[in-house]
Amino acid sequence: MRLSILRHAPAVTQGRLAGRRDVPADCSDRDALARVRSRIGVTDHVICSPALRCRQTADALGLTPDATDPVLWEQDFGAWEGLPYAELPDLGPLTTDQLADHRPEGGESFVDLCARITPALRALTRDTLIVAHAGTVRAALSMVAGNGALSFAVAPLSLTILHRHGNQWSVEATNLPIFES
User: Fold this and answer.
1) Residue 47: beta bridge partners?
2) For residues 75 and 149, is the Cβ–Cβ distance under 8 A?
3) Which of 142, 98, 91 minimizes the C-alpha distance to 121?
């Protein structure tokens, strides 16, 4: 089974952490969207996060999701939601596991995010394209890389592809950019 996860188009955040805030996507770059659509190719099963930015991205790509799944929402950053990036707290030096366990007040940790998302990914039975968030991509990568998935950059409109062989997951590609033709 092939799992492709597309991160939504750039979120319109006015320089603030979006997380669970339902902000729109900037889908104005029609050339980039056309390149993404070409890279995705034919897809029979599409699932989308219910976030506005994900639904707008799917629509701009001409994709009709079979379902939206609230499990795919971005990480809940609790008290950090909506803060300007410059005002986010400096957590100091943390190991990868400490960072994965850190939970902002009222929010969820990366470990919590993975516990929410990975069962849904493991339950998939056919090739699927998911339109979702950077956190969703990292949760999928954690099935192969554990908490080391936090070290992956996930650009807007990038594609990450995993394969499942029996119960084993492998990574074909991460953060595939959409190059100019």
Assistant:
1) 67, 130
2) no
3) 142
- Model confidence over 89-139: pLDDT tens digits? 999 999 999 999 999 999 999 999 999 999 999 999 999 999 999 999 999
For residue 181, tell me if it sits in a domain. no
Q: Considering its fold, how many domains does the chain have in total?
A: 1
21 in any annotated domain: yes
Task: Judge whether 29 lies within some domain.
Answer: yes
Ordered strands of the 46-48 beta sheet? 67-68, 46-48, 128-132, 2-7, 159-165, 168-176
151 in any annotated domain: yes
Tens digits of per-residue pLDDT, 47-84? 999 999 999 999 999 999 999 999 999 999 999 999 99
Q: Phi/psi class of residue 82: alpha, beta or left (left: φ > 0; alpha: ψ in -120 to 50)?
A: left
Name the residue range of residue 155's domain. Answer: 2-176
Q: What CATH code is carried by the domain that includes residue 52?
A: 3.40.50.1240
Task: List Cα–Cα distances, 179 to 43, 58, 65, 156, 174, in angstroms.
Answer: 21, 19, 25, 13, 14
